[in-house]
Structures are given as structure tokens and as C-alpha cells.
Write a structure and sequence with these properties.
By secondary structure, the protein is mainly α. It has 8 helices and no strands. Helix 4 runs parallel beside helix 6. It starts with a helix and ends in a 6-residue tail after the last helix.
Length: 126
């Protein structure tokens, strides 16, 4: 269904975004990366596209690519707590624990309710 929508509207974001959601649900993140590259080509100011591609990179353990996409998403939307949180995970997986801690702290600064979630998962201690 989404393949048909993409072929009929190759210059629109929505068909790609919907197809990437379907790919993510069935754990086909490699295909998600391709579609988000297309979304970003169509709308290079979409923080959501950079965030979602970063998320797919995290799932594929492409930590440095994830960090780059989360950073771009945060340059476009500096209060995206999910981007800080997930970039913190990516930093941690590359051994950059200081940067990881800074990102977790920033996520909590923006949304204090995240403290329980982040510290409860034992991935960070303030």
C-alpha cells in the first residue's frame, strides 16, 4: 500500500513517513534509513525526520550516524527530550560517557519527569 503511495507521490513527505513507520514496526530499519533520506531531501528542516532516522540508526547500532542525526534534530528543535535521551544512549555506546551524561541532564532539565525513567533504567546516575 505505502509503496504505491510513494510511487504516486515521490515528492511528498507523508507517503515516505508512513512507509517508514511500517518498516520500523516490522524491524526493517535499513529500509527506513533510505526513506528518511528521501524525506530529508524533500524537507531538510524536518527535525522529526532527523530524529526518526537517528532512532533507526540506534536500532542498527550505527551510533555515530545516530549522534549526527540527533544533533541535527536538536539544532532544529532544541527542546526535543527524546533526541537528548537517545543521543545520550548513542554517546554511551561509543564510550563518550561525559556527553551522554550531559544529554541525560538536558532531557531532565526540559522534562523533570524523565528523571525517574532515566535513573530507573540504570543507564545514568546524576
Amino acid at each position: 500500500m505505502w509503496n504505491d503511495a510513494v510511487s504516486k507521490s515521490p515528492n511528498k513527505v507523508r507517503p515516505y513517513a508512513n512507509r517508514t513507520a511500517a518498516y520500523t514496526m516490522i524491524n526493517r530499519c535499513n529500509k527506513t534509513l533510505v526513506d528518511y533520506a528521501n524525506v530529508i531531501e524533500i524537507d531538510s528542516l524536518s527535525s522529526i525526520a532527523y530524529y526518526n532516522r537517528g532512532y533507526a540508526c540506534n536500532k542498527l547500532k550505527l551510533w555515530n550516524d545516530a549522534i549526527a542525526d540527533y544533533t541535527k534534530a536538536l539544532n532544529l528543535d532544541s527542546v526535543c527530550t527524546d533526541a537528548y535521551y537517545n543521543r545520550g544512549i548513542a554517546y554511551g555506546n561509543t564510550g563518550q560517557f561525559n556527553k551522554s551524561s550531559i544529554d541525560f541532564s538536558k532531557a531532565i532539565e526540559i522534562d523533570p519527569k524523565l528523571r525517574v525513567f532515566i535513573t530507573g533504567r540504570h543507564i545514568w546516575k546524576p
